[in-house]
Amino acid sequence: MKILKNTFGVLLLGVLLGCSSNEPATEEIPEALAVSSVPSFSYIAETRSLYVTSNLDWRINNDANWITVDPEFGSDNGPVNISVTANQSSYMRSAMLSISGGNITRYLQISQERVVEPEPTPTPAPSNGLDPNQAPSENFDLSTWKLSIPVNRGDGTATDISVSQLNDNYQNSAYFYTASDGGMVFKCPVDGYKTSANTSYTRVELREMLRGTNTSISTQGVNKNNWVFGTAPQADKNAAAAYDGEMNATLAVNHVTTSGSSSHIGRVIIGQIHANNDEPIRIYYRKLRNNNLGSIYFAHEPTDGNGSEQWHEMIGSRSNSASNPSDGIALNEVFSYRINVVGDLLTVTIIRDGKQDVVKSVNMVNSGFNVGGQYMYFKAGVYHVNNSGNSSDFAQATFYALEKSHTSN
Question: Which single residue of 15, 46, 99, 373 has CA 20 to 30 Å from 77?
């Protein structure tokens, strides 16, 4: 009986051992997919990172053209870069990305701030005392000037804006107006109508009119509209409005022509004394295309039979192939000129802040202007001495001061 019990125990142990040799059932690992959040982006283009935590193969679905995802797919854990382009609109924008893996989908909202327009800064009062909201005649004493613009007045010649018209707050957005800094702008195209058949070039230029609004006095002649040199005959000094004179101007040349013949390109006359038929002085500014700085020179033109035209270089050279003048004047650089006549002595001065004045004098005793019948008037603005450039090319100068004086009889 004891033997039988032992035999049964052995068999039972064998069964148990046989059952224990089978593989146990595999425990299933749950799917996992998590995505970190991303703070709102600023309006500029930038990149930020998020982190995917997963035990699955995953993919990011993106339908927004302003968002770039890198990488778009992966497996297991890993960082993802989210890049946005600049938001140029005035509205905040957002998009929803979906991240899918296995049977799980997560959603991630991407937001980007709008452009925040800065509060407008009040326009400071110009330091030169000029008001950008006023017409040129309200900022400058134009009571003894008229203006020429290259617009057909009906007979094929340029239009004159009379003293009274000019001082009735006249402006013209194409040719003559007040700049944002209060300056008086003269803008003259290559193409346009000239003041007479004898003139080759266009101009937007002031012409001195000492008669003011008294149109009973003739524009031309030795009379109360014009002045003479102090060495003129006494009868002419008595008949004229005044004798001798000085004009002071502060300005910046903003643009010169970049097209045309080599003798024309980049040059403009910014101030003159005009006589009957000749010019005791014409002041030129010239900047060539390949130069950063411009030159200043002037011409003195005697009357017929009293010699050839004279040229006087003050800053740089008047050459058609001049190198960049080391002490030249850049476009938009403010400078001043002074034209002074006492008797037969003409003196021209160029004045710049922080630099020594440049001065040239001409003795005009033999130039033919100190005889009877010769009368003078100042001119200032843009006399555009280029008629070979493209029709749309132009010259422009902005004046910040313009004053003149004469000796009264």
Answer: 46
The whole-number pLDDT of residue 116 equals: 64
Q: Is 236 helix (H, G, I), strand (E, B) or coil?
A: helix
pLDDT at 244: 98
Residue 229 has pLDDT above 80, yes or no: yes
What's the start-to-end Cα distance of the chain, in Å? 165
Q: Identify whether the C-beta of residue 267 lies closer than 8 Å to the C-beta of residue 316.
A: no
Longest Cα separation, the chain: 172
The answer to whether residues 82 and 49 touch, using CB atoms and an 8 Å cutoff, is yes
Q: Is residue 201 a contact partner of residue 389, using CB atoms and an 8 Å limit?
A: no
Percentage with pLDDT > 70 across the chain:
90
For the cut 90, the answer to whether the pLDDT of residue 91 exceeds it is no
**Given this chain, do its domains 33-112 and 136-407 carry the same CATH topology?**
no
**Cα–Cα distance measured from residue 275 to residue 342, given in angstroms and rounded to the nearest whole number:** 15
The CATH code that applies to domain 33-112 is: 2.60.40.10
Q: Cα separation of 386 and 403, whole Å?
A: 27
Q: Which residue's structure tokens are 């007479």?
A: 196
- Portion of the chain with pLDDT greater than 90, in percent: 67
Per the listing, tokens 């003739």 go with 218
pLDDT, mean over the chain:
89
Please report, for the chain, the start and end positions of each structural domain, with discontinuous segments joined by +.
33-112, 136-407
Write down the pTM of the prediction. Answer: 0.70
Topology (CATH level 3) of domain 136-407: Jelly Rolls (2.60.120)
Neighbouring C-alpha atoms within 13 Å toward the C-beta of 117: 6
φ/ψ (deg, to 5) at 360: -135, 140
Alpha-carbon span 186 to 175, nearest angstrom: 6
